[in-house]
Amino acid sequence: MFRILDVLPVWLLALGVMGLLFLSLEVGYRLSHRKPGLDDASALQASVLGLVALLLAFSFSMAEERYSLRRALVVQEANAIGTLYLRIGFLPEPARGEMRAHLHRYTDLRLEGYAAVGEPEHFAKLLRESDALGVELWSRLEAVAPQLPAAVLMLTAEALNEVLDTSDERLAAAHNLIPTSIFFLLLVGMLGSGVLLGYRPDAHVRGVLSWTLFVVILTAVMFTLLDLDLPNRGRIRVDQQPLRALQERLRAQP
Prior knowledge:
80% of the residues lie in helices and 0% in strands. By secondary structure, the protein is mainly α. The protein has one domain. Helix 3 packs antiparallel against helix 6 (150-175) and helix 5 packs antiparallel against helix 6. The longest helix is centred in the first third of the chain and has 48 residues, at 41-88. The radius of gyration is 26 Å and the shape is rod-shaped. The two termini are 50 Å apart.
């Protein structure tokens, strides 16, 4: 399903799901007039709708947990970079100025990279450049290590390691999505509930208004869930304000 999302716009996929839901309602309606007599249709409707509601609640819980983690990691990364910047102040020149200049550029790349998550090639390029800067920062610290007191070296190395580890954690969190099988099961449940809701042997006309409300609400809920889960699509994005605030503070430093 995520491969389809990488190819098709979300709005086009939403229209496709809406079409499938209307089709399922139509199938249920026609079956009810060709093969009436399903006495426990209302019980099945309640059961399937309850299952769909349970799946939606479970999926939203998973998506919200992942979203909250990605948001917390932004704060963690900003704090780690800020701490490293301060601890670099213990180093002698020219290492201090060089490493702080690299850290300025590293912060810029992190912001540019997460603004380009919807452009895989550009994102990968920026990620490689930020990783290379991380390696360069570590190399500069190794070069100046013999000149440093043990306590200063330990504090600076610890801060730099936190910056690099947080970068890896953010990348892992961006790829930690709800399994595709859950979305597939949710779609099957939605279509099944559509068939059962369309099954109305006692009705001689289609419930256009109720059908439309059912389709629009379910589609909106499902794609809000997708929007929340996918960090590189849609309008729900993790706010990078902590990193932007840090960037401004670093630029204000002499």
